[in-house]
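Quick one, T. Sequence first:
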Amino acid sequence: MSVFESLNNTSDKATDLGEKYLKTSQEYITLKAFQQLTFSFSLIVKLFAVGALVFLGLIFLAISGAIAIGNALDSITLGCLIVAVIFLMLAILVYVLRKHIDRKIIQKISIKFFN
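Structure tokens:
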């Protein structure tokens, strides 16, 4: 009878350890998901805040640049046109380099996301 009791105790211990492992794994996965969610959310908020401020700065810089170029050329319209062409060239450059930019962003985020 002691062999059966020993086998029963061993199987009970194994079951308890398995349940404890599953519970601990579930808690870890929950914490890891929370960490990744908060990291992603804070990254998006920071990106939005910095992007909005940079956008406002670029608007004022473009307006003042267009006025300055327009005064130098005695044509505000021509100054605005030159600034617009500069922005279009920058947009084309970003479009051409988009895959390289995506790769860099994925590399930077994956370091923090998968650690």
